[in-house]
Amino acid sequence: MLIRRRRPWDMPEASVTPEALFLDRRRVLAGLAAGSALVAGATPASADGLFGGLFSSEKKAPPAPPEPDPTADLYPATRNPAFTLDREITPESVTSTYNNFYEFGWTKGIWQTAQNLKIRPWQVRFDGLVEQEKTVDIDTLIRAMTLEERLYRHRCVEAWAMAVPWTGFPMGKLVDYARPLGSAKYVRMETFLDPDVAPGQKDTRWPWPYVEGLTMAEATNELAFMVTGIYGKPILKQYGAPLRLAVPWKYGFKSVKSIVRFSFVEERPRSFWEDLQPSEYGFWANVNPEVAHPRWSQATEELIGTGTRVPTQLYNGYGDSVASLYTGLESETLYR
Ligand SMILES: Nc1nc2c(c(=O)[nH]1)N[C@H]1C(S)=C(S)[C@@H](COP(=O)(O)O)O[C@H]1N2
Ligand SMILES: [Mo]
Question: Domain spanning 13-61+69-320: which superfamily?
């Protein structure tokens, strides 16, 4: 018989998201050995005592008013008719209060804590295999691009889904701007690192900063989209302002938020979730209803805010655009 005893660092079941459920034991011990302030200073009696003070905002509320944004004049951008959907857009009141952004906490209700993030000034670094490494101010970068709106599906590996109107520009344009060398095989993307504003980053059991990667072919696919806005306005902090990725044929964890660095590299980058739990989260992470996550089925998905479930689609419905990226790669773990 398997007896599962609650350890002091376990979260109460109801507030645990499947992505964060495991916390591999080696890391827990490593965190304890390192004397992580979070663990050392906590009241061991309950998980609420451990995390409640940091990650407390679960209540539903309207989105926070955006600060004056230096690029506000660029919104709303023209909708690109090539990217529309057969399902309704999820309301802003739902998507702005239901987020995964572990830098700010373990629950879906991190939107208030995320308001601590300072998004100006914001510098973006381009380095690695490029003609010339450079650091660019976010507003300079955004104004060098032509913004457009696209309606995209968004499917989390936890089997929930949304449909959102992103504003941004194709990642292919960002790759052109970076001027990578022919030897570059992957783009590695990194989120900011600042434990003073992002309490989750104080927990040394996690491999911060958040890292993700794409092959050059994926990054330059027409669907890969750099997001700067949503609902016809500059993007709010909880969605990953001021610059995030949207790769809608992949599970949501690939769509890295609040990016500060793009590195063009020869070796496949090891991403945040892959580093944490390689048996559950891989590099490719393409949506596939027939390949279950080790702990749950991916056959259906909950449409957040509607109370209904619908069948999951292969490549989240984007197979026409992306299936050819994976021919010849059948031996890889493409769907996790
Ligand atoms: N830096 C960073 N990026 C991230 C995450 C995160 O925790 N940190 N969560 C990912 C996951 S698991 C999902 S499902 C999406 C959620 O995006 P949303 O909150 O805009 O719906 O962001 C992804 N990007
Ligand atoms: Mo996710």
Answer: Oxidoreductase, molybdopterin-binding domain (3.90.420.10)
